[in-house]
From TrEMBL:
Name of the protein in question: Retrotransposon gag domain-containing protein
Ranges for region Disordered: 1-51, 94-113
Biased composition annotated in UniProt, kind: Polar residues: 1-21, 35-44
Organism: Phytophthora fragariae
Length: 234
């Protein structure tokens, strides 16, 4: 083998050694270090998929919450309006009652004298305070508290004892009338009334006689009325 052939063989071997690392590197992908994402993979990764059904459910939930809040606000506003209407109605009713009372004038005071009618005076009071029927028939002291200013001095002294005796118990109108009659009606009241009815004569007109008769009759009890009717029938 001559020198030219040997030199050519050596050049080919050197070329093969120099080209083999490049070829191996070109044919083999370099591994990516752990924990370092590749730029190509991060740029091409698709966003997380959100279904239309889940979006619709979220919208419906928000709408339901808003609707509940609106309903609650409407109910609160309606309750406020109703409360205001009740307060105004109560105020108007009190004003109307006070106006009616002023237009009627004041009822007579009861002084506890023997000449005063213990049935007619309570009737006058009830007619004067006719707007207070609920208080009159109630099981409390409201109606009696309205009547107290129309008691005379002597009767007021009795009422003070009456109030202290009851203490915390309600001073109902029924009990007040009952005790008032017991205190200020004479023990012989029925006998005196029966005597007046017996001695009653028609000395004037028929209207005057009837008016006086009805006055006595209004002050009487049922038993006395029955006795008077029996006397007329006899």
């Amino acid at each position: 083998m001559d020198d030219s052939t040997t030199a050519e063989t050596m050049r080919q071997a050197a070329s093969t050694r120099n080209a083999s690392p490049t070829a191996a590197h070109a044919g083999t992908e370099m591994p990516t270090p752990a924990g370092t994402p590749s730029q190509a993979s991060s740029s091409t990764m698709p966003p997380p998929h959100v279904s239309e059904q889940s979006v619709l459910m979220q919208m419906m939930q928000r709408m339901a919450v808003q609707q509940h809040v609106m309903q609650t606000q409407q109910q609160q506003f309606q309750a406020f309006l109703e409360q205001q209407a009740r307060v105004q109605n109560e105020l108007f009713e009190k004003q109307a009652k006070a106006s009616r009372q002023r237009s009627k004038g004041e009822p007579p005071k009861f002084n506890g004298s023997a000449k005063e009618d213990l049935k007619l005076w309570p009737f006058q009071i009830e007619e004067h305070f006719i707007s207070y029927a609920a208080e009159r028939d109630g099981n409390d002291s409201r109606f009696v508290d309205l009547v107290v200013p129309y008691l005379g001095t002597n009767v007021m002294s009795w009422y003070r004892e009456f109030k202290q005796t009851l203490g915390e118990h309600p001073r109902t109108w029924y009990l007040f009338k009952q005790q008032l009659r017991i205190r200020f009606r004479d023990s012989d009241f029925e006998y005196k009334l029966l005597s007046r009815l017996y001695d009653l004569r028609a000395t004037g007109t028929q209207q005057e006689y009837t008016a006086k008769f009805m006055l006595y009759l209004a002050a009487s009890d049922l038993a006395i009325c029955t006795l008077w009717i029996f006397r007329i029938e006899d």
